[in-house]
Specification:
With about 210 residues, this protein is α/β, with parallel strands linked by helices. About 40% of the residues lie in helices and about 20% in strands. It is globular and about 40 Å long. It comes from Branchiostoma floridae.
């Protein structure tokens, strides 16, 4: 996790974006894979990544951002409903840190579909979902293949911009699946090799606020 000093430096480097987009608003839901293939360290890395992203968005101090967090395996569990906490509330980052690894199968497509169908996004505000996963989706008990590609496309058609963040064991990442979920190489990020949530926060601001 980045220190407050490092986050402050990152924010200063992006001060021009902050200043130019003081009225920018968006809603973002983090979907974090907590399946067996991701392993406990992958869940921990995802939680740290999400907390860093939230901290960095908070330090911009000029955005109206709604945040929600869901962990998923073969089912999805909404740990932090969208808008339950305001950005900057210390209880928000504390709640992220309290999310534990569960293990089980990974139904990425099901998680995306449930997010699309049940999340209470605000009207007239850009919608974003960040999927943190190794990309290794499994089928259900009836051996149906995980339909992450179809569900990702349907989410985009519903007006939700998707980002993918690689987490879990690097050797087993399905990069093709991650690319498909993101839909654009510029929206693919990683928790590996020093990847951090502040970089994602900057990308969200650049994509949504500069072009919004």
């Amino acid at each position: 996790m980045w220190s407050k000093e490092m986050l402050a430096v990152a924010c200063l480097l992006l001060a021009a974006i902050c200043k130019a987009n003081a009225q920018c608003s968006f809603d973002v839901v983090f979907l974090a894979d907590s399946s067996s293939s991701v392993r406990p360290h992958g869940t921990t890395a995802a939680n740290i990544y999400i907390r860093d992203a939230i901290d960095c968005l908070t330090m911009y101090n000029v955005y109206d951002v709604g945040v929600g967090v869901t962990h998923f395996t073969c089912t999805s569990t909404e740990h932090i409903p969208l808008g339950h906490y305001t950005l900057g509330d210390p209880e928000l980052t504390a709640a992220v840190g309290n999310i534990a690894h569960t293990g089980g199968l990974s139904r990425i497509g099901l998680a995306i579909r449930k997010m699309k169908d049940t999340t209470s996004f605000r009207s007239g505000v850009p919608r974003v979902a960040v999927v943190l996963t190794d990309g290794v989706g499994q089928g259900d008990a009836n051996e149906r293949v995980d339909d992450y590609a179809e569900q990702a496309e349907e989410a985009r058609e519903a007006g939700i911009t998707l980002y993918a963040v690689a987490t879990g064991m690097y050797a087993f990442l399905d990069t093709a699946a991650l690319d498909t979920i993101a839909g654009d190489p510029s929206r693919l990020h990683t928790t590996h090799f020093g990847g951090n949530g502040c970089g994602l926060a900057a990308k969200l601001v650049e994509d949504i606020c500069e072009t919004g």
